[in-house]
Amino acid sequence: MTAFQRIAVLGSTGSIGESTLDVIARHPDRLAVHALSAHSRMEKLAEQARASGARVVVVPDAAARERFLQAWGSDAPLPQVRVGAQALADTAADPACDTVMAAIVGAAGLPSALAAARAGKRVLLANKEALVAAGSLFMGAVRDHGAELLPIDSEHNAIFQCLPHGERASAPTRPAAGVRRLILTASGGPFRQHDPELLHGITPAQACKHPNWSMGRKISVDSATMLNKGLEVIEAHWLFAMPQDRIEVLVHPQSVVHSMVEYEDGSVIAQLGQPDMRTPIAYALGFPDRLASGVGLLDLARLGRLDFEAPDLRRFPCLQLAFDALAAGQGACIALNAANEIAVDAFLRERLPYTRISAVIAETLEWHAGRPSVTLNHLDDVLAEDAAARAQAEQIQARSVPAGR
Ligand code: NAD
Ligand code: MG
After folding, report:
1. What catalytic reaction does the record list (predicted)?
2. DSSP bridge pairs for 59
């Protein structure tokens, strides 16, 4: 890895995108923005492009391009404005950048993340849905094209930090030697102690109010249902080549221990820090060096205690659904993720009650179990399976009673 990195931040207007730009701006001697991408907030994108000196921006369509140009309103040289999903994938593979931050939310981020891996980039992967939908394809691309994969999800970044590794990140084909289990911590979200009977009337604002982390709306709802932790078990399975029965979920309400690795000799190594995504982002940008991130000190004396408990699978049915999908195989994982994206979107638009999110996923998984199995060796196969599952989940969701009626 050259010391100076030119970076494409895909999904720059999101929560992870903003934290990434914050860290990059702290290190002008070794980090620079090459490209930015956003789906909707064009004013924000223009502001970010001006501040970072991005050479390229990627927007979804011609109307967004117009809005971006209107928002530019500056004498500074206009960045090149690229349009559409293919331009996004091409930008991820652009020879003018070294590193790609994959921070688009949902399976929509899969083609560009895969393009970055196939171009042999240093890939900073925040987009966990890409691994859930296409873990084998993605990890194969990382290996075949000599890409460098660094996990951004705080738990996986923590595990990566606790595992033995050399100067270069890679895509393992077997569990690291001497490791017994990976222990993924989970905050339990805003409803950890809620009476399940009272969850029906939960509003999007309540579900998005996470006790420890400030994140995008979709992942905030996923954290409330704990499907997020299920997606992360699948993510850990692929990233670290770890069998499902050696990945443990542990509820830890303070979100200070970000995850742990248990070794054969009984040692458990943990990574701790404030719940601020700039730490894992700075780690991945600097790897193998350590960079200042702007994150404050961890004051354990002030915190006083750290609590742990086993997850309650009856309270969080989505977690069990994710375990079931991983055991069932890749097609089921695609269906799980697609159904969740549909259900969470409907919940956020107040078209689906909170408690029906798990039901939409469960019914979509049942539908999937009755389908003939298909090969999923190519991106097109994955996208077709994803589209079929979305269509099915839409139908199931539409049959549900709208929220609050
Ligand atoms: P967010 O909603 O804040 O931002 C999403 C970004 O993706 C935005 O820039 C948006 O414009 C872009 N986008 C949305 N739909 C798109 C589409 N169809 N095509 C292209 N671009 C699109 O989300 P976030 O919280 O920053 O999360 C991003 C990813 O990182 C998710 O996969 C999430 O699971 C993962 N992640 C986030 C956090 C966190 O703290 N926010 C932590 C761990 C992992
Ligand atoms: Mg996480």
Report:
1. 2-C-methyl-D-erythritol 4-phosphate + NADP(+) = 1-deoxy-D-xylulose 5-phosphate + NADPH + H(+)
2. 83
Specify the 3-state DSSP secondary structure of 247: strand
Q: Is 14 in the pocket of ligand 1 (CB under 6 A)?
A: yes
- Per-residue pLDDT of 239-264, as tens digits, reads 999 999 999 999 999 999 999 999 99
Is residue 237 within 8 A of residue 322, CB to CB? The reply is no
Answer for the pair 91, 11: CB distance below 8 angstroms, yes or no: no
How buried is 360 (Cβ within 10 angstroms: 0-12 exposed, 13-18 middle, 19+ buried)?
buried
The predicted model scores a pTM of 0.97
Tell me which fold the domain 5-151 belongs to: Rossmann fold (3.40.50)
Architecture of domain 329-400: Orthogonal Bundle (1.10)
Element spanning 241, H or E: none
* 93, two tokens: 């593979």
pLDDT digit string (tens) for 119-162?
Answer: 999 999 999 999 999 999 999 999 999 999 999 999 999 999 99
Could you list the residues known to form a binding site for 1-deoxy-D-xylulose 5-phosphate, using ranges: 128, 154-155, 187, 210, 223, 228-229, 232
